[in-house]
């Protein structure tokens, strides 16, 4: 088999999938350069993230599970409440990562990113921040890349992990683009009210969904989902007022949470999008991973999990096969497609039921089928 140390890979994008594939390829001795457009490596961006067991399974494979476990808040149930905070029922979460991992763990998104950053640094990858590729020139054996700082490099493979609006995806001629689903979400990090120990979701009221997730012993992130609105009509300085107005319609822990929705700079507003690249996920020696290939609303909290699984599967194939050819990249896409499509479709279906006002939707059945399927290894 070809000595992996003789091969080189460029990873474009330092989010979950880009960081994960870098760590795994470096473990096999492959030379990896990672370039990230944001000078701060997104180390301070975001409020919180919900990680289910299948995401935790990949993080354990990356060697960061102990740090993630220490930084986050694990729990094993989901509550559904009325808008006034009355708990209607509590369901046990399905342990999609196996019995030896929590069903769910919430954590502050910057904490997760910093843990992955540290692991990338420790792997020995060459990292350059504030840099983007200006052009990609392929031949039969590799890719010549010109960078925005005037430098250039030649690589056996380029991994496009540059997110939902991937410039690399467009540059290699894949024309699929993300489409809005009709919903948008307001998010904020806040102190954890005493007694809040799991995610609760309220449906109805001023918004479609109002929920929260504990992210540490002292913190949560809270979110409110409504129909998407023209971003131009929502100046950033109004974000706290907008979210607070929606959140004030909910009881239970919400009155305590609302007290902390006071700084518009700490409120994030994002539309939900759907993306699933239907054709090949590669062109020659450039291959997509994570949100550059697929994205879905966070209604199943599976976006990061799908991105991390992509990295795991792609790295497995790259480190166990001698030929980095069309067959390898086709096998990667085929292996991922059914699972990703299931998650994308199910996540969008949950949102569409809300948009359509369907009151008798089989949410428990869809949830049970989807999460049980995710217990299987990717």
Describe the secondary-structure layout.
Elements: E1 8-12, H1 16-27, E2 31-36, E3 49-52, H2 53-61, H3 65-71, E4 73-75, E5 77-81, E6 87-92, E7 104-107, H4 109-123, E8 126-129, E9 133-138, E10 143-147, E11 152-155, E12 157-160, H5 167-171, E13 179-191, E14 199-203, E15 209-214, E16 219-227, H6 239-247, H7 254-258, E17 267-276, E18 282-283, E19 286-288, E20 294-295, H8 303-320, H9 326-356, H10 363-373
Parallel strand pairs: 1-2, 1-12, 2-8, 5-14, 12-19
Antiparallel strand pairs: 3-7, 4-7, 5-6, 9-10, 10-11, 13-16, 13-17, 14-15, 15-16, 17-20, 18-19
Which descriptors would you attach to this protein?
378 residues; alpha+beta; FAD/NAD(P)-binding domain; D-Amino Acid Oxidase, Chain A, domain 2; 2 domains; eight-stranded mixed beta sheet; six-stranded mixed beta sheet; 10 helices; 20 strands
How would you explain this protein's 3D organization?
The structure is a single chain. This protein is α+β, with helices and mostly antiparallel strands. The chain folds into two domains: 4-73 and 106-178 and 274-373, 3-Layer(bba) Sandwich (FAD/NAD(P)-binding domain), CATH 3.50.50.60; 182-273, 2-Layer Sandwich (D-Amino Acid Oxidase, Chain A, domain 2), CATH 3.30.9.30. It has ten helices and 20 strands. The strands form four sheets. It has an eight-stranded mixed beta sheet, with helices on both faces. A six-stranded mixed beta sheet has the order 8-2-1-12-19-18, covered by helices on one side. β1, α1 and β2 form a beta-alpha-beta unit. α1 packs parallel to α8. The longest helix has 31 residues, at 326-356.
């Amino acid at each position: 088999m070809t000595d992996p140390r003789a091969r080189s890979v460029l990873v474009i994008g330092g989010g979950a999938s880009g960081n994960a594939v870098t760590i795994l390829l470096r473990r096999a001795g492959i030379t990896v350069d990672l370039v990230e457009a944001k000078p701060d490596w997104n180390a301070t961006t975001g409020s919180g993230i919900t990680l289910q067991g299948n995401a935790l399974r990949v993080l354990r494979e990356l060697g960061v599970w102990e740090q993630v476990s220490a930084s986050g808040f694990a729990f094993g149930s989901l509550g559904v409440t009325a808008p006034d905070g009355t708990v209607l029922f509590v369901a046990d979460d399905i342990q999609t990562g196996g019995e030896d991992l929590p069903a769910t763990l919430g954590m502050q998104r910057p904490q997760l990113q910093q843990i992955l950053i540290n692991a990338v640094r420790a792997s020995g990858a060459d990292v350059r921040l504030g840099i983007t590729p200006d052009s990609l020139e392929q031949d039969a054996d590799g890719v010549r890349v010109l960078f925005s700082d005037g430098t250039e490099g030649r690589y056996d493979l380029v991994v496009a992990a540059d997110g939902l609006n991937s410039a690399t995806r467009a540059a290699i001629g894949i024309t699929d683009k993300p489409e809005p689903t009709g919903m948008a979400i307001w998010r904020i990090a806040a102190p954890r009210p005493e007694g809040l120990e799991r995610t609760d979701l309220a449906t109805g009221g001023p918004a479609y969904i109002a929920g929260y997730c504990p992210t540490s012993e002292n913190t949560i992130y809270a979110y409110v989902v409504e129909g998407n609105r023209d971003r131009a009509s929502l100046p950033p300085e109004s974000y706290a007022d907008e979210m607070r107005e929606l959140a004030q319609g909910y009881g239970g822990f919400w009155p305590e949470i609302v007290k902390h929705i006071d700084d518009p700079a700490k409120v994030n507003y994002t539309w939900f999008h759907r993306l699933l690249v239907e054709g090949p996920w590669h062109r020659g020696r450039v291959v997509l991973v994570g949100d550059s290939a697929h994205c879905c609303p966070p209604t199943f909290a599976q976006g990061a999990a799908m991105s991390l699984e992509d990295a795991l599967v792609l790295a497995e194939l790259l480190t166990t096969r001698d030929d980095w050819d069309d067959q390898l990249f086709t096998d990667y896409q085929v292996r991922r497609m059914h699972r990703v499509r299931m998650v994308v479709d199910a996540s969008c279906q949950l949102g569409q039921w809300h948009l359509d006002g369907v009151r008798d939707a089989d949410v428990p059945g869809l949830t049970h089928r989807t999460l049980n399927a995710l217990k299987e290894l990717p």
